[in-house]
Amino acid sequence: MKSAILAIAMLLPIFIYSQTTFQKGYFIQNDGQRKEVLIKNLDWSNNPTSFEYKTTDDASVETTTMAKVTEFGIDGVSKYTRATVDMDLATKRHGNLPRTRIPEFTKKTAFLKVLSEGKETLYAYDDNGVNLFFYKTDADSIKQLIYRKYVGKNNALLENVAYRTQLKAEVNCATDDKSAKIERLKYNRDDLTDYFDEINSCGGLSPSATEQPVATTKLARKKGVLNFSPAVGYNLYKGEIDHPVDSRDLSFSKSGVSIGLEIEYVLPTNNGKLSIIFEPTYHSIGKVEQTNTINTVLDEHMTLKYNLLKFPLGVRWRFFISPDSQIFVNGVFNYGMVLNNEIEMTQSNNLGIFTSTYTFGAGVGFAYKRFAAEARFSSSAGLVSNQNVSSSIQIGPNFIFRYNIFKR
């Protein structure tokens, strides 16, 4: 079991890297030349400083950097623009908040991600917990939307929400004042992108009847997906007790069925390949009986009943074969709640059973449309809670079959 888990863990980074695809895109060089290429879509969580591309499907992979490129994009997916801007990098640093509401700007050159583009443009900058938003009006340079958490008097946690004032003054709609809506806007990607999309639809700050409409670009906006999949498992169970008194040893191996419900949240990053999984599962080993000889007169009859509620929590990574089929690997931490607490013995005191278990597991599976099958391997756990008794129980391998009830 340990070898299977280790093999999956070692091969996972290789599979992840090889599954990243090159998609149709472009970039603009410093001299203004535009190149139509295939760009490696890493679905960047942090704003990139470089990217890989190919001129054709069969061409070799090349790398270019922010120093050589003013703009790049993947068709219908994302667009990045190089800009030198003033950033308040203390905005979202946790554990060391500033003690002033006044922004402390640092000039920085970065690829800013375009979230909404038109007469007014919204950009995002993400870097390991620092999440900033910038805007550009029709006749102005790119500026940060100011939001700053800080510590005030008596260590009170306060907020500078100057971005709302900026939006009212510079990114509003002349025909339909949005001030009331702006007061409700949160400093996050969804709220701000929705607002800029709406403003660009109304024409921006000062449109006139004779103005030509400004082209608006709406790029793909990804949201997380929640899946619910009832599951049935066929499982192999193996247990062993090594007691100082030989007549109290126990060894068994049997199979059984489990039922569960997998709740999966597919993260909106990494092209939908990464998700968090939680799968409460009920296992019933049923009754295990064994008789050991004490002497020519007495036998020790042992009875084990073992039922377990298992709560695996972990992550999943997908490798898409086609739009309908995929291979996936899982890594989970298992917390188990044991529903029976002793082993009955006819000639001795009963043995106590651990009331909870903690194990790790790894699995590999295949999914086609709504259906999925997985083989999962888990580490063993202790069985008997009595001192001086060596014991273990293995839940698995597990062969799990699921049906996604809400997938379209």
What is this structure's SSE topology?
Elements: H1 2-19, E1 22-29, E2 34-40, E3 50-54, E4 62-65, E5 69-74, E6 78-88, E7 105-117, E8 121-127, E9 130-136, E10 143-144, E11 148-151, E12 157-160, H2 162-170, H3 179-182, H4 189-202, E13 217-218, E14 225-242, E15 250-266, E16 274-278, E17 281-293, E18 299-320, E19 325-338, E20 342-345, E21 351-352, E22 356-368, E23 371-378, E24 390-403
Antiparallel strand pairs: 1-2, 1-5, 2-3, 3-4, 5-6, 6-7, 7-8, 7-13, 8-9, 9-10, 11-12, 14-15, 14-24, 15-16, 15-17, 16-18, 17-18, 18-19, 18-20, 19-22, 20-21, 22-23, 23-24
Description:
This protein is mostly beta strands. It has 3 domains: 21-75, SH3 type barrels (Roll), CATH 2.30.30; 87-221, no CATH class; 225-403, Porin (Beta Barrel). It is built from 4 helices and 24 strands. The protein has helices spanning 2-19, 162-170, 179-182, 189-202; strands at 22-29, 34-40, 50-54, 62-65, 69-74, 78-88, 105-117, 121-127, 130-136, 143-144, 148-151, 157-160, 217-218, 225-242, 250-266, 274-278, 281-293, 299-320, 325-338, 342-345, 351-352, 356-368, 371-378, 390-403. The chain starts with a helix and ends in a 5-residue tail after the last strand. The relative contact order is 0.11. Mean pLDDT is 85; it is low at 204-216.
Question: What brief labels describe this structure?
Answer:
408 residues; mainly beta; SH3 type barrels; Porin; 3 domains; 24 strands; 11% helix
- CATH architecture label name of the largest domain: Beta Barrel
**Amount of beta strand:** over 45%
Low-pLDDT residue spans: 204-216
Report helical residue fraction.
Answer: 10-25%
Q: What's the CATH topology label of the largest domain?
A: Porin
Q: Average pLDDT value? A: 85
User: Gyration radius, to the nearest Å?
Assistant: 29 Å
**Count of distinct structural domains:** 3
Q: How do the helices and strands follow one another from N- to C-terminus?
A: HEEEEEEEEEEEEHHHEEEEEEEEEEEE
Inertia-based shape:
elongated
Count of β-strands = 24
Largest sheet: 11 strands, antiparallel
Q: What is the CATH domain class of the largest domain?
A: Mainly Beta
Treating each run of at least 4 consecutive H or I residues as one helix, how many helices? Answer: 4
Determine the structural class based on helices, strands and strand pairing.
mainly beta
First-last Cα distance: 35 Å
